[in-house]
């Protein structure tokens, strides 16, 4: 009672602790802090100790630390003051590119107990970039017949800033023919259009030059300029027209180089050179020009570089179709990159405790975070460890996991554990973390100094061309640690050798080589396989046992093998289930099934035995086999199959039917010969009794002994008691009770292959 009384207060204390932790977590909401880009290092962001409601000492005692999503140390927590400060100058464009707002997610980690607090840092943009046009000069060819109000698209400028600091307006120097209109696309970006105010006259002025200015909304505003060269063309009545003004396509990110993305098509009603269309990319950035290729004649857009959904998820292409007369049309192509499961999950360990004390349950071993760069199901993950280890994985917020002991450990029983954490995503096909296992190390020494003594380790090409060394092992070039890259199968590869090299950084570089031999230890990964009796779904094998069998009579023998080696292949046999317990037994070391006692008339004629074959591995593996046993009065008794066996035999191969018919024919001939022989003997005896012939009485005949001498293939003489029934409609001859000599009865009491041959020779 006293021990139980001491335990309950401790449980209440633990419950109160978790309750307080839950209240603390429930009261914390994701905080957002802000800072302006280009702010100097050491800038005060927030007082985390105050926001968390913790004292500075408690913050330090619990090992508080700041972890960002990309593992970049942009923020620093001062444990002396509890203040969150900038660790480096931030560049919003480098961090987020065109994404607005630019938010950096980070977590505050606390230990003892574990706490994870989410927070965000908003990086505000400043106007530190000026608009830039892709070209210093752009050329427009405008027919002189163009009416006022005609709109001509111009190439837009690019500004790396966002929001009001991005481009807000376009302007052009004053002239009598054109003005610029600023249009706003659905994505919020603005682009310029040149609007014709007054008809052109090529004979009066064949070329115009204008200055286009892009202005952002910063304070003070920044600007960029480009020259617009306008060539006035003679009349060309029809401009090319695209079949669609907007093409929308989806392209898997694993599409090969050269794959067709889209084919655009335009037509021109003019003839001759004025109707010949060529296609061009109207506006190209470096990313577009290095990723896509446009065929100027066919309008096909093809890949010239592999796509990566995680880097860029969409593209927008502007394609211009120009005819021979200088007229053009424009269309847009929106390309959506479809994510495929091409990124394996990543695992980052934040803290690791090793060694750990024994006899300490719920000990925290490691804290780690998992991440998958894919999206949707491809980015959803599951985390697991081996089932046979005394450890547990406890999930936390933001894909954090804690590895803890599931119970008290005993160093004397096991002093070391090798734990493999496997992270698998839900994509198709499913990807998982690389199960690299440290298997050993190589080390070399160099008596030189400085760079001449700095060594680099490498794997040498394998001498055996059939050995896939690159997929088996890897080596750390800096420290010589060797890792197994995949699971090794002892049954397929028991040992292999490879060469390693160590090269210094001197000039000339000197090197040395060594051989490494890896011995694969067998694991119990194969279950026993039963060779006899076969369990292949065909008609079950039935073992016949005479009721006169003594205790220890050999019924059959279960034969099994195991693909493993050593003690993993040591097999033992056990009787799991029997129709009548205690009647049969299985020898544990050789699989022999024997009778455990004398049989009696009260024993059921049909028995089913379930035998288990178990190996000696850790953990052990097993297989089971079902035996059917039929008790008969003697081996001369006709074999009666089990009901379920009869159903299977009815569907047996036709060859079995032919064998049965042949056996029945031979047996019939044999019985007929014996019957004639007996009839002749009886007739002779009747004549000897002066009856003058052979007569058949009305009732049952008295028993007689048929004596078969040992002059045939049998080694001794045998006698059978024969009974002929005169009123059965047909005379039948049966072997009822064989009368064996003493030594022969002992031989037939043993189940062997010879007994089967003997039965067949008698036609049983």
TrEMBL record:
MF-aspect GO terms: calcium ion binding
Domain Cadherin: 134-242, 243-347, 348-429, 439-530, 545-640
Keywords assigned: Calcium, Cell adhesion, Cell membrane, Glycoprotein, Membrane, Repeat, Signal, Transmembrane, Transmembrane helix
GO biological process: homophilic cell adhesion via plasma membrane adhesion molecules
Residues in the signal sequence: 1-26
PROSITE patterns in alphabetical order: CADHERIN_1, CADHERIN_2
Entry's localization field: Cell membrane
Alphabetized Pfam families for the sequence: Cadherin, Cadherin_2, Cadherin_C_2
Topological type in the membrane: Single-pass type I membrane protein
Keyword Flavoprotein: no
Superkingdom field: Eukaryota
GO cellular component: a single term: plasma membrane
Regions crossing the membrane: 657-680
Role summary: Potential calcium-dependent cell-adhesion protein. May be involved in the establishment and maintenance of specific neuronal connections in the brain.
Protein name per its UniProtKB record: Protocadherin beta 15
Annotated source species: Equus asinus asinus
Species classification: Eukaryota, Metazoa, Chordata, Craniata, Vertebrata
Gene assigned in the entry: PCDHB15
């Amino acid at each position: 009672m006293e021990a139980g009384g001491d335990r309950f207060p401790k449980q209440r204390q633990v419950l109160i602790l978790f309750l307080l932790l839950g209240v603390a977590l429930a009261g914390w909401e994701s905080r957002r802090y802000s800072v302006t880009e280009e702010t100097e290092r050491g800038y005060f962001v927030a007082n985390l100790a105050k926001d968390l409601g913790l004292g500075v000492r408690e913050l330090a005692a619990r090992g508080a630390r700041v972890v960002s999503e990309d593992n970049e140390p942009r923020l620093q927590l001062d444990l002396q003051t509890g203040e969150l400060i900038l660790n480096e100058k931030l560049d919003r464009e480098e961090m987020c590119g065109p994404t607005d707002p630019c938010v950096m997610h980070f977590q505050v980690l606390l230990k003892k107990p574990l706490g994870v607090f989410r927070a965000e840092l908003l990086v505000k943009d400043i106007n530190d970039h000026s608009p830039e046009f892709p070209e210093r000069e752009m050329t427009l060819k405008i027919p002189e017949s163009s009416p006022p109000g005609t709109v001509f698209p111009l190439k837009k400028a690019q500004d790396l800033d966002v929001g009001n600091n991005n481009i807000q307006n376009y302007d052009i120097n004053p002239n009598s023919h054109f003005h610029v209109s600023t249009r706003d696309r659905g994505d919020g970006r603005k682009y310029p259009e040149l609007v014709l105010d007054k008809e052109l006259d090529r004979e009066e002025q064949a070329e115009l030059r204008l200055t286009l200015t892009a202005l952002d909304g910063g304070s003070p505003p920044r600007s960029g300029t480009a020259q617009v060269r306008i060539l006035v063309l003679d009349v060309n009545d029809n401009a090319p027209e695209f079949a669609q003004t907007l093409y929308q396509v989806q392209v898997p990110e694993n599409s090969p180089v050269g794959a067709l993305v889209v084919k655009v098509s335009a037509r021109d009603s003019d003839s001759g050179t004025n109707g010949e269309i060529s296609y061009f990319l109207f506006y190209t950035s470096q990313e577009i020009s290095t990723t896509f290729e446009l065929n100027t004649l066919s309008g096909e857009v093809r890949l010239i570089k592999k796509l990566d959904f995680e880097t860029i998820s969409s593209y927008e292409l502007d394609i211009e179709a120009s005819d021979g007369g200088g007229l053009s049309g424009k269309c847009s192509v929106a390309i959506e990159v479809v994510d495929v499961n091409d990124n394996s999950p990543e695992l980052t360990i934040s803290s690791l405790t090793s060694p750990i004390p024994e006899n300490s349950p719920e000990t925290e071993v490691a804290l780690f975070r998992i991440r998958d760069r894919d999206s949707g199901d491809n980015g959803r993950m599951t985390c697991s460890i081996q089932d046979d280890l005394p450890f547990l994985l406890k999930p936390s917020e933001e894909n954090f996991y804690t590895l803890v002991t599931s119970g008290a450990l005993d160093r004397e029983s096991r002093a070391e554990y090798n734990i493999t954490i496997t992270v698998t995503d839900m994509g198709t096909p499913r990807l998982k973390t690389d199960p690299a296992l440290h298997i050993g190390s190589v080390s070399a020494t160099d008596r030189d100094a400085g760079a001449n003594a700095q060594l680099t380790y490498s794997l040498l090409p394998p001498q055996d061309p059939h050995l896939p060394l690159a997929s088996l092992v890897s080596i750390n070039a800096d420290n010589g640690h060797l890792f197994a890259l995949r699971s090794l199968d002892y049954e397929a590869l028991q040992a292999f050798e490879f060469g390693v090299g160590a090269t210094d950084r001197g000039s000339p570089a000197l090197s040395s080589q060594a051989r490494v031999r890896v011995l694969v230890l067998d694991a119990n990964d194969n279950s026993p396989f039963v060779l006899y009796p076969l369990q292949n779904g065909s008609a079950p094998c039935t073992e016949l046992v005479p009721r006169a069998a003594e205790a220890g009579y050999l019924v059959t023998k279960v034969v099994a093998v195991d693909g493993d080696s050593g003690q993993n292949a040591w097999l033992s046999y056990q009787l799991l289930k029997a129709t009548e317990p205690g009647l049969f037994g299985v020898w544990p070391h050789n699989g022999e099934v024997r009778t455990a006692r004398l049989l009696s008339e009260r024993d059921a004629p049909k028995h089913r035995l379930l035998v288990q074959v178990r190996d000696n591995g850790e953990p052990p593996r097993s297989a089971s086999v079902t035996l059917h046993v039929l008790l008969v009065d003697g081996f001369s008794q006709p074999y009666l199959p089990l009901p379920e066996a009869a159903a299977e035999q009815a569907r047996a191969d036709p060859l079995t039917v032919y064998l049965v018919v042949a056996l029945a024919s031979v047996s019939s001939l044999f019985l007929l010969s014996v019957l004639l022989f007996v009839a002749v003997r009886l007739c002779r005896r009747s004549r000897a009794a002066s009856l003058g012939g052979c007569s058949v009485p009305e009732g049952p005949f008295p028993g007689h002994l048929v004596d078969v001498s040992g002059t045939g293939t049998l080694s001794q003489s045998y006698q059978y008691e024969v009974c002929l029934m005169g009123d059965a409609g047909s005379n039948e001859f049966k072997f009822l009770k064989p009368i064996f000599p003493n030594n022969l009865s002992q031989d037939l009491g043993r189940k062997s292959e010879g007994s089967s041959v003997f039965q067949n020779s008698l036609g049983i």
